[in-house]
Description:
Blueprint: H1 19-35, E1 43-51, E2 54-61, E3 70-76, E4 100-104, H2 116-130, H3 132-135, E5 137-147, H4 149-159, E6 185-189, H5 198-201, H6 204-218, H7 226-231, H8 234-237, E7 245-250, H9 259-270, E8 275-280, H10 293-308
Parallel strand pairs: 3-4, 3-5, 5-6, 6-7, 7-8
Antiparallel strand pairs: 1-2, 2-4
Amino acid sequence: MRCCTRLGSSAIRPGRLPLLALAPLLVLIMNNQATAQKIHATQADLIYATEGETPLRLDLYLPEADQKPAGLIVWIHGGAWRAGTKSQVPIKGILQHGLAIASVDYRLSTEAAFPAQLHDITRAIAFLRRNAGKFSIDPERIAIAGSSAGGHLAALAGVASNITQLAGRSEDGRPLPAEALRISAIVSLYGASNLETILQQSTPHGLNVRIPALQLLLRAQPDENPALARLASPVTHVDSKDPPLLLIHGDQDIQMPINQSHELRGAYLSVGGKVEFDVIHGGGHGGEKFYTQDRLQRIATFIKQSFTD
């Protein structure tokens, strides 16, 4: 339920993120990395685009199964938009289900404000589709998934492929066409969906992380730049043509309000979209419960079914 009291900008001035607030986030990142299988990328550090003089890279993991070309999951790491790397891939076990994974580095909010993150992710999608034959992946079977901030970015890329402001640019400087960015399935693990309501829904601990994170991402608080907050919110862009969506969220998440997933589910239902919502009872913000063999099989099954719909 949304809080009835609006947090004004005077109540949420961020300053710098305290180390104590950042510590739980770093622990989760380390835990997720530790639980991932020790599987090396088939092709590491592929350059999918260049920003200024800085190359943007991704790692590609191909399944050992002979099924080629393989369906692909574009994986977006978390880290409050300000931390994390493509090396954090807790879903590597999905390779056993015959799906490939491309884990993408994107510009963090410490480097560039939103929508730079979406520009990079869309360029990665277009690169992978353009080079699908070279990489033995199927350009007609591409899903996107992510956790925490990565879940938010994955959902946004999936529902807003036709929004020119969010699309990266091709080598000739034109916005990438929606067809190049088409996604067949979305999986958001404990991600944000509505940046205009997230602070009102947050716990005190959540506010300690979220306020400075949003300040970096938007270079403002949501009530100070509501137009940008709406542009960055997946709920704003949902329509009946969006790909099937799987939401996974813990009911004890004190960092990312579970109401964010409820809102995105509601937006899908309001337009007749296909959405499934798995609540992890006793689950917090990430951790092993989200990446068990059964959970990864559930994600793989959802994605494969979406490919055939």
